[in-house]
């Protein structure tokens, strides 16, 4: 083995490059800009609020500042005199120092009349409880996700004040430097903060599509011109139980006090008061409640601060006049390396400067830093949680400097670690009758073993502790509340699952042998968790030309830690769940009709030769109506009509009859001589297309319903108005109005690709539309060769949808001249398309073997509906069904005929990630797809060497058994990996032998020493290199699939092998900072000796080979290198071309057009580097809410033409997939300002300036301000990181997301 130095360029790297580049924003004079969109926010749960109280009758209106001089709010840190309590003299007027405190001397009930609202009348109050999950970068409110601009740092609930309606507020802090006061409004989902016409003092008018939507009513910008990241406030947020005082802590040096001011339009927080702390705040919490005597006994001394990682989610309202003082504890690690308890108290109704009091208690040097600090309000004390013991520190201990703290052993085992706590108000209230002592508290504490312990404290002594819940996942955060059927247990795990469970009884789970058994809960909801996302794989979809998927590529990944890992298949669309049993006897049905009679809901389910009536009982149950009075044979049309008596009756059409009935009695019948092919009904009109039995002539006929008197006099149900013979074979018929209720048009689709329009009621010919005219696909594309035959037509408001027999979807809008203007022509499948209109006309189902949804609230384009099931099933028909009383606002209920039968289902109307997951019972590291076998190979870090390779079948979604054998010892079964040998990298190796290619798998390993960490990517150990032959075997007896793994070659190496790639016929791999090379000798049938081609300055993280023999190398600490591969078959060299002149901590890089996109793991940022002419002349960097890895991807939607592109440069790689370790998934794409996508978006937005200029206008309420009030959306651009402004077009903005063109789908 010989080492070839890399020309010495590493040692002279920074001195030899003369260019000096700096970060730049996007130049609006350039033609290129960027678009960024989030497909999946991080699933990590940070806070659980099971019951958040919202007044659904309040007006859709924000609050305004209560201060006449708003400049009082525009300071981050008051003057030094204002921050020092001992600076105030007795003769100073508090109102001169804090003008806002003029109202603090009043009780909240009286001060409310002089605050924010100018309304003299009060609206009625109706409180509803909603569930909120605070995730890392979003709020999940009753199942609807609202993303924020950056990660959520902390959150707390400000309980509602009982005398003012009892509505809660939510306070969150963002890592971008903002604190936001959020109020929930129950409003129609399309309402935005810019809809000023709806922002009145009147209650909101609901139209059936209302949801709970968060808006920012007050905000603070904490970005300071300082470099100390510990100082900005918002590290943790705390609210007093009374809801009258809030604290925002910094990580060090200070915390802020905000007293609450109440008005008719809600609360606002008054001007803050800073308290100085000399040290780092480790824990903090309010003491709830303390009596006035306790708080008044705290002596005034130096200032202090607080910090805590858990938020009390108790939102029970409290009468504001019960508690006028609050007490706040903070545990501080001082500059002198001492632990000190600081206890502060102040009044919520008086000036803080007059009522603030504080005492300190230095703790002994051997006092252990607690993991959690919990307030015990009824005991007037605090519970300090350590791994080995529990310590109770009472307020009396602090005031009298008494160090005789009550201590006991912790109830968990030494192997468990406490993670979080919860104090349940609902359970405490039910158990208060059984506890004789009023000085009692109960606390629930979770551990990383998935166990929840209940601890009872009375008179500052722990009287009992027991394990009451155990689940399989480690618990990071949880809530436990009483519900009608038992106890609702919601938990989140950073590395396991996130679930909501129903537990019937809470009792001790400890057994006689000392073990703790698992609970037996019922799953309510699985909040999928795919964090940490360790590795991903992008692969081509199965037969994309058959349109089984929305995209030409698929995204798979592995996530989790330890033995709780999962393989996940990621999709983006609408999530659906089957709610009922499957009625298998109905699997041959092909169409559904909805009928409503006397408030009852029925489904007419039609088969080829019969029809069945089903009654829906509103509890996910269908019952057949036996002996129903309906027509025999297949049903062509069925629906409800209203007769002259204002009664609903069934109107049914079969191949030669019409029927009126109520299912139990036949009311009228009419027989036709011709065979009815198609039928449609609109108000009093009925249109038929029939075929003569003898002559075979097809005729278009328009009928009108007879009145009840006419039916009795003449018989029959309808009377003929006009008829017209058709010259072309019809494919469908529809009655239209073209957005004018006075019009009547009949649209007839024909098999020659036309849509013929006739004007009623005389059926005069209007015009013909040739549907092929709108085909955007090139003629040499297989899509463009198909004829467009209309199969179904629906008119909804001012637009028209046409579905073809070949899977085309056409959307037209109707202009003022009643003309049809085509919006788009899409190919979404190969099967006939049918539409199903919902009660909400903005949402339409599209059936094309799979289920799609056109949801105009979310996008102008249809998106797939994915069921939360392992296997996809074909869908043939759907029909919406009524919701029950507890239905979620975000869901639609529907019946679906699938290949296995009829099922009742629910689908979310909010687009988001849809994830299918299969557990892998081993700690995983990498995943690779073996396309030639259609299986995944998973590299694991198992203790068992035989489990370090796992195989997963893509089609059956199952783990496969495998056998490891040696090719050098007569196929003897062996263990490929030794005890300390772990696979960490792999590559598919294609070898040309005897005129055809064979494929092997190359594995790079890390060999740890006996004391090593086991499978790390790097380390002090050595490495090894393996060549494996992998094949699939099918058992003749059980037809099960297994995998055979044969070890062909294995040799050791000096260091772990972290990356392997194939360049032409050569193998290149990295080991630490070396680039190594070998190749296969066909004559000698062995690998050539390894040669070190180059040595770089730091460890190599990733290697990427590009056309024209370009090799891009990302190193750990310094740069991205561009090298030129030179090989003539006998000799291989790498020539240095260029590199990024700045040192960075890039994870990897990818190519986008003529630019390099790299993810920085130190700063959580993306850098887009222009390396044209190898000069790295400019770059754009912006922060992202994750540790990003970037991958080149296509993910082209199925409707995008395959022979045309919308790319902006000659390089087709214009889209980058962004994957975060925390589970964040998004993409970044290049846009040409002169291109079709950019100009189309401008036209839809109705702007003449650039899109970037329009986005800047959204920042006007924040210009030159550090704080403010109003009514603002949660994802305003101003709430993003300051350095991100103007660097990309954010497709997450609601103003843009519903109008942008969708070309990228997963």
Give the tags.
1306 residues; nine-stranded mixed beta sheet; eleven-stranded mixed beta sheet; mainly beta; 5% helix
Short description:
The protein is 5% helix and 47% strand. The chain has 1306 residues and is mainly beta.
What general form does the structure show? globular
Average pLDDT score: 85
The main sheet comes to: 11 strands, mixed
Taking Cα atoms only, what radius of gyration do you get, to the nearest Å? 35 Å
Task: Report the portion of residues in β strands.
Answer: over 45%
Could you tell me the number of beta strands?
87
Structural class: mainly beta
Uncertain segments are: 1-22, 76-122, 290-322, 1013-1019, 1204-1211
Care to describe what's here?
The protein has 1306 residues and is mostly beta strands. 5% of the residues lie in helices and 47% in strands. Strands 30, 31, 32, 53, 54, 55, 56, 57, 58, 59 and 60 form an 11-stranded mixed β-sheet that branches. Strands 61, 62, 63, 64, 65, 66, 67, 68 and 69 form a 9-stranded mixed β-sheet that branches. Strands 10, 11, 12, 13, 14, 15, 16 and 17 form an 8-stranded antiparallel β-sheet that branches. The longest helix has 10 residues, at 1236-1245.
């Amino acid at each position: 083995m010989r080492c070839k130095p890399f020309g010495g360029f590493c040692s002279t790297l920074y001195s030899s490059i003369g260019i000096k580049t700096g970060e730049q924003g996007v130049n609006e004079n350039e033609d290129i800009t960027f678009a960024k969109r989030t497909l999946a926010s991080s699933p990590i749960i940070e806070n659980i609020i099971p019951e958040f109280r919202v007044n659904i009758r309040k007006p859709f209106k924000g609050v305004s500042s209560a201060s006449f001089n708003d400049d009082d709010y525009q300071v981050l840190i008051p003057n030094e005199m204002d921050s020092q309590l001992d600076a105030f003299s007795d003769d100073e007027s508090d109102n001169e120092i804090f003008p806002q405190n003029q109202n603090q001397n009043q009780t909240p009930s009286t001060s409310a009349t002089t605050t924010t609202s100018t309304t003299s009348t009060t609206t009625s109050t109706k409180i509803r409880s909603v569930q909120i999950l605070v995730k890392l970068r979003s709020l999940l409110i009753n199942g609807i996700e609202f993303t924020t601009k950056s990660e959520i740092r902390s959150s707390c609930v400000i309980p509602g004040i009982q005398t003012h309606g009892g509505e809660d507020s939510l306070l969150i802090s963002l890592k971008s430097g903002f604190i936001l006061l959020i109020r929930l409004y129950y409003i129609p989902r399309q309402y935005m903060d810019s809809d000023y016409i709806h922002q009145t003092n009147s209650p909101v008018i609901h139209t059936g599509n209302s949801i709970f939507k968060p808006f920012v009513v007050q905000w603070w910008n904490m970005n300071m011109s300082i470099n100390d990241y510990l100082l900005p406030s918002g590290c943790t947020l705390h609210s007093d139980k009374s809801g009258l005082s809030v604290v925002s802590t910094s990580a060090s040096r200070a915390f802020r006090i905000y007293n609450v001011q109440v008005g008719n339009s809600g609360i606002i927080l008054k001007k803050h008061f800073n308290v100085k702390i000399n040290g780092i705040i480790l824990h903090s919490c309010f003491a709830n409640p303390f009596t006035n005597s306790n708080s008044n006994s705290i002596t005034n001394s130096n200032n202090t601060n607080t910090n805590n990682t858990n938020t009390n989610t108790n939102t029970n309202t409290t009468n504001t006049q019960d508690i006028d003082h609050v007490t706040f504890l903070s545990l501080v690690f001082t500059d002198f390396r001492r632990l000190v308890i600081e206890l502060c108290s102040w009044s919520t109704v008086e000036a803080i400067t007059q009522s603030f009091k504080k005492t300190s208690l230095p703790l002994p040097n051997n006092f252990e830093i607690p993991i959690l600090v919990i307030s015990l309000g009824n005991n007037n004390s605090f519970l300090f949680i350590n791994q080995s013991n529990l310590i109770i520190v009472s307020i009396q201990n602090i005031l009298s400097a008494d160090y005789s703290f009550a201590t006991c052993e912790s109830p968990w085992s030494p192997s468990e670690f406490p993670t979080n706590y919860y104090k349940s108000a609902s359970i405490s209230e039910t158990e208060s009758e059984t506890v004789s002592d009023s000085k009692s508290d109960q606390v629930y504490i979770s551990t990383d073993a998935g166990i929840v312990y209940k601890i009872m404290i009375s008179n500052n002594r722990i009287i009992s502790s027991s394990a009451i819940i155990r689940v399989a996942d480690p618990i990071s955060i949880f809530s436990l509340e009483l519900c009608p059927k038992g106890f609702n247990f919601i938990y989140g795990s950073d590395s396991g699952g996130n679930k909501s469970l129903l537990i019937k009884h809470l009792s001790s789970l400890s057994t006689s042998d000392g073990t703790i058994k698992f609970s037996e809960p019922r799953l309510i909801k699985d909040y999928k968790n795919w964090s940490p996302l360790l590795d991903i794989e992008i692969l081509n979809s199965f037969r994309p030309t058959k349109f089984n998927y929305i995209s030409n590529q698929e995204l798979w990944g592995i996530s989790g830690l330890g033995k709780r890992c999962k393989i996940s298949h990621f999709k983006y669309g609408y999530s659906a769940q089957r709610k009922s049993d499957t009625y298998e006897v109905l699997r041959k049905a092909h169409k559904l009709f909805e009928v409503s009679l006397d408030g009852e809901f029925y489904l007419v389910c039609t088969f080829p030769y019969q029809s069945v009536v089903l009654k829906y009982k509103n509890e996910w149950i269908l019952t057949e109506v036996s002996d129903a009075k309906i027509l025999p044979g297949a049903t062509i049309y069925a629906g409800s009509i209203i007769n002259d008596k204002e009664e609903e009756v069934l109107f049914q059409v079969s191949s030669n009859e019409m029927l009126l009935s109520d299912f139990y009695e036949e009311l009228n019948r009419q027989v036709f001589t011709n065979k009815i092919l198609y039928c449609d009904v609109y108000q009093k009109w009925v249109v038929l297309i029939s075929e003569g039995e003898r002559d075979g002539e097809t005729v278009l006929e328009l009928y009108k319903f007879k009145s009840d008197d006419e039916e009795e006099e003449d018989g029959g149900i309808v009377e003929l108005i006009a008829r017209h013979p058709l010259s072309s074979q019809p494919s469908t018929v529809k009655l239209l109005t073209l957005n004018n209720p006075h019009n009547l048009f009949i649209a007839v689709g024909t098999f020659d690709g036309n849509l013929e329009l006739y004007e009623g009621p005389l059926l005069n010919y209007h015009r013909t539309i040739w549907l092929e005219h709108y085909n955007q696909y090139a003629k040499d594309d297989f899509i463009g060769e198909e004829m467009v035959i209309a199969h179904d037509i629906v008119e909804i408001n001012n637009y028209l949808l046409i579905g073809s027999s070949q899977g085309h979807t056409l959307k037209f809008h109707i202009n003022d001249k009643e003309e049809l203007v085509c919006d788009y022509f899409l190919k979404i499948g190969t099967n006939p398309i049918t539409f199903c209109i919902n009660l909400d006309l903005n949402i339409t189902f599209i059936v094309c073997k799979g289920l799609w949804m056109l949801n105009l609230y979310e996008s102008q384009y249809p998106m797939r509906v994915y069921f939360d099931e392992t296997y996809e099933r074909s869908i043939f028909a759907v029909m919406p069904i009524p919701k029950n009383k507890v239905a979620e606002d975000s869901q639609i209920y529907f019946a679906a005929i699938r290949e296995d039968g009829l099922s009742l289902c629910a689908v979310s109307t909010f687009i988001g990630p849809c994830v299918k997951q299969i557990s892998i019972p081993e700690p995983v590291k990498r995943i690779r797809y073996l396309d030639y076998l259609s299986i995944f190979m998973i590299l694991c870090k198992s203790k068992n060497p035989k489990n370090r390779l796992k195989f997963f079948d893509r089609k059956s979604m199952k783990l496969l058994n495998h056998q490891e054998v040696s090719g050098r010892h007569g196929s003897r079964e062996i263990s490929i990996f030794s005890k300390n040998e772990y696979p960490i990298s792999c590559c598919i190796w294609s070898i040309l032998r005897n005129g055809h290619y064979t494929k092997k798998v190359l594995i790079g390993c890390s060999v740890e020493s006996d004391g090593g960490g086991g499978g790390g990517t790097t380390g002090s150990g050595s490495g090894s290199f393996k060549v494996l032959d992998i094949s699939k075997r099918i058992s003749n007896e059980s037809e099960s699939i297994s995998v055979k793994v044969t070890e062909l070659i294995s040799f050791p190496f000096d260091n772990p092998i972290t990356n392997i790639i194939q360049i032409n016929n050569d193998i290149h791999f990295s080991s630490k900072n070396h680039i190594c090379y070998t190749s296969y000798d066909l004559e000698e049938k062995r690998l050539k000796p390894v040669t070190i081609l180059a040595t770089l300055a730091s460890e190599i993280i990733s290697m990427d080979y590009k056309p024209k023999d370009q090799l891009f190398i990302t190193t750990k600490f310094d740069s991205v290198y561009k090298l030129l591969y030179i090989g003539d078959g006998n000799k291989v060299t790498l020539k240095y071309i260029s590199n990024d002149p700045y040192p960075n901590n890039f994870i990897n890089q990818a190519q986008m057009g003529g630019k390099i996109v790299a993810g920085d793991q130190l700063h959580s940022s993306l850098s887009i580097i222009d390396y044209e002419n190898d000069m790295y002349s400019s770059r754009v960097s912006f922060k992202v809410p994750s540790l990003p890895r970037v991958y080149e991807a296509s993910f082209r939607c199925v409707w995008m033409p395959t022979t045309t592109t919308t790319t902006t440069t000659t390089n087709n790689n214009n889209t980058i997939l962004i994957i975060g370790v925390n589970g964040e998934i998004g993409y970044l794409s290049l846009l040409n300002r002169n291109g079709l996508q950019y100009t189309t978006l401008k036209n839809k937005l109705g702007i003449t300036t650039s899109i970037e200029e329009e986005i800047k206008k959204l920042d006007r309420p924040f210009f030159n301000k550090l704080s403010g009030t109003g009514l603002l959306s949660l994802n305003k651009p101003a709430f993003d990181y300051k350095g991100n402004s103007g660097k990309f077009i954010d497709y997450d903005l609601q103003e843009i997301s519903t109008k942008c063109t969708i070309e990228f789908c997963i």
